[in-house]
Specification:
The complex is a heterodimer of chains A (318) and B (95). Helix content of chain A is 67%, strand content 2%. Chain A is built from 13 helices and 2 strands, in the order ααααααααααββααα. Chain B has a 3-stranded antiparallel β-sheet, with helices on one face. Chain B starts with 7 loop residues before the first strand and ends in a 23-residue tail after the last helix. Chain B has a domain of 61 residues: Phenylacetic acid degradation B (Ubiquitin-like (UB roll)). Classes of the chains: A mainly alpha (318), B alpha+beta (95).
């Protein structure tokens, strides 16, 4: 077999042609180093977010108000673990090791979505997380299904398919509370008050303050800008809040007939960057919980390794 | 064997009888038994499969993108391998 060796110029052109033609770049294809690095950072952060995202909800498994709610919450959290694994695998195809990614998370070197640094203090928060946080994540992830890197795109397709139940179960929780006693409705409103703005921040800084976005969009990793995604989320969520009879905590929120979209108030970016920097309400707790979970799982990993080694020895001896 | 040494496995799932096993994704596990057990939890939480294959990734041999032209271009100009290449009068009916 004769291998055709391409010049650097030809490789670059081939890569650009794939992107241009809406094709997919696969792991063994040549890609610019910066594209690879951007993807490793983004996909691993995404994986970390799934894994850390299990923590605020895990807190409520033992306190779910019914068996129905409990099995749903367990299934949702198990999905998030699974989603983390799909994404770690996708990142590994780019040449980074699982071990290094996990270690970056545990040492605090890697980032994860800031939304998970907020506490879930009432049961209504579990509803708000499903409805708003997963709702916002889905808006972002639907776009990422079309990302130019094959393994990332495929992981996103799988994740989106599984995720829609997450949002529905959250909305159902809030709906029941909103239709319940005045105290229950108050719980639902309180959760909306606390989760609304952080959910809007999930889409990241405004377009003019997001310097890496342009390159990501040129590479077709990202297909829609932060502000456009945020607008999409707001426009789809406001009618859902209205149906619940709850009030979105933004006095500037109002329908703009000309734009056919909702105008909304200023986001507190100081809060956002403060949480990103590690000063959110739960940053330390989340990291500590992940470290503990990893340390507590060490004996399981050891036992599985020892068992596999013993079986392999027996097989050899037989 | 530390966690670091757990090999990567490729997971293939048959979604129902009569269909091929299809690549679903990959995972790390210390041995085949654990790989199957993990594959069940990671890739078949919603009745996606009736059968699972796992194979250590290092056992898979693959073509490289550089070979693409040599391997696959020759098939491009062989339209006569497809049924639509042949002219059959409509009166003959479906063939």
């Amino acid at each position: 077999m004769q291998f055709r060796t391409m010049t650097a110029q030809q490789q670059q052109e081939r890569f650009e042609a794939i992107i241009e033609a809406e094709g997919k770049v696969e792991p063994k294809d040549w890609m610019p180093e910066a594209y690879r690095k951007t993807l490793i950072r983004q996909i691993s952060q995404h994986a970390h977010s799934e894994v850390v995202g299990m923590l605020p909800e895990g807190r409520w498994i033992t306190r779910a108000p019914s068996l129905r709610r409990k099995v749903a919450l367990l299934a949702k959290i198990q999905d998030e673990g699974g989603h983390g694994l799909y994404l770690y695998s996708a990142a590994e195809t780019l040449g980074v090791s699982r071990e290094d990614m996990v270690s970056d998370l545990l040492t605090g070197k890697a980032k994860y979505s800031s939304i998970f640094n907020y506490p879930t203090i009432t049961w209504a928060d579990i509803g708000a997380v499903g409805w708003l946080v997963d709702g916002a994540a889905i808006v972002n992830q639907i776009m990422l299904q079309k990302a130019s890197f094959g393994p990332y795109s495929r992981a996103m397709i799988r994740i989106c398919k599984e995720e829609s139940f997450h949002q529905r179960q959250g909305y159902e929780i809030i709906l029941k509370l909103a239709q319940g006693t005045p105290e229950q409705k108050e719980l639902a409103q309180d959760a909306l008050n606390r989760w609304w703005w952080p959910s809007l921040m999930m889409f990241g800084p405004n377009d003019d303050a997001s310097p890496n976005s342009a390159q990501s969009m040129a590479w077709k990793i990202k297909r829609i800008s932060n502000d456009d995604l945020r607008q999409k989320f707001i426009d789809q969520t406001v009618p859902q809040a209205n149906f619940l009879g709850l009030t979105i905590p933004d006095p500037d929120l109002k329908w703009n007939e000309e734009r056919k979209a909702y105008d909304f108030g200023e986001i507190d970016w100081e809060e956002f960057f403060n949480v990103v920097k590690g000063n959110g309400p739960c940053n330390k707790e989340r990291l500590r919980d992940r470290q503990e979970a990893h340390a507590n799982g060490e004996w399981v990993r050891e036992a599985a390794s020892a068992y596999a080694a013993k079986k392999a020895e027996r097989k050899e001896a037989a | 064997m530390s966690r670091k040494d757990w090999p990567l496995w490729e997971v293939f799932i048959r979604s129902r009888s009569g269909l091929h096993h299809k690549h679903a994704g990959s995972l790390h596990a210390p041995d085949a038994e654990m790989a199957i057990s993990n594959a069940r939890d990671v890739y078949t939480r919603r009745n996606e499969g009736v059968s699972i294959w796992v194979v250590e990734s290092r056992h898979i041999h693959a073509t490289t993108p550089g070979e693409k032209e040599e391997l696959f271009d020759p098939a491009e100009d062989k339209a006569y391998r497809h049924p639509t290449f042949y002219d059959i009068p409509d009166e003959v009916g479906h063939m």
